[in-house]
Amino acid sequence: xxxxxxxxxxxxxxxxxxxxxxxxxxxxxxxxxxxxxxxxxxxxxxxxxxxxxxxxxxxxxxxxxxxxxxxxxxxxxxxxxxxxxxxxxxxxxxxxxxxxxxxxxxxxxxxxxxxxxxxxxxxxxxxxxxxxxxxxxxxxxxxxxxxxxxxxxxxxxxxxxxxxxxxxxxxxxxxxxxxxxxxxxxxxxxxxxxxxxxxxxxxxxxxxxxxxxxxxxxxxxxxxxxxxxxxxxxxxxxxxxxxxxxxxxxxxxxxxxxxxxxxxxxxxxxxxxxxxxx
Length: 278
Prior knowledge:
The strands form two sheets. This protein has a four-stranded parallel β-sheet, sandwiched between helices. The chain has a four-stranded parallel β-sheet with strand order 6-5-7-8, with helices on both faces. It is elongated, with a radius of gyration of 23 Å. The longest helix is centred in the N-terminal third of the chain and has 18 residues, at 48-65. It folds into two domains: 8-106, Rossmann fold (3-Layer(aba) Sandwich); 123-270, Rossmann fold (3-Layer(aba) Sandwich), CATH 3.40.50. By secondary structure, the protein is of the alpha/beta class. Helices cover 44% and strands 14% of the residues. It has helices at 19-29, 48-65, 78-85, 94-106, 123-138, 163-174, 185-188, 211-221, 230-246, 259-270, and strands at 8-13, 37-42, 69-73, 89-93, 153-157, 178-182, 204-208, 251-253.
């Protein structure tokens, strides 16, 4: 499709954060890579006034693009949903798609209560998630190893291989206590794990990365440096791959997969019994 064509307006609308609508909507839109989309998130649509304002924004975008907008909605309130349904858009209503069939199957009406999916409905669960996030921040990048005994997993790998974002995702999404330790060239030169990690071998999980991908990521941080040079990246990736093999550390290649995929693979491969987050 020509770049001169206006992108199709897409709206993610919700009575709360719109995160669910965005996640589900993005998953569907990835199947249409030939089309350009202009994304708009409209969270906290929890009143008639806000719904009317959102409807106006949707209509204006549709008119500007000379075509219907695409709307992904997780609105619960029937009046608000009706307002959005009466716009120049194609509405994909996740409430209708999922809640209604569940009501039929379960033989009962849903509560129609707003904000339950992201609300603090269980304070113990919420606090466990917050504790996990704090743990990830305190035990990031090998700054401290004092709490490693309490970790569910300790990620190891070269600098910029994806350890920190994966730890934070494991904490936020699964309430898991994840620490990470960066292995430098000096750490790996003799082919053995640093002694400080020996007591926690069963918790270690490795992130591998190709030298080319590592170079691209490091160039963003320190352009034209030895740290980001292809030769340095090749040396470090060669050493880390050998170390993982010698020490028999489970690992995956993080080069071209998402944080979500990395985190889920770690849980599966390490058989981590993750706590309930609902």
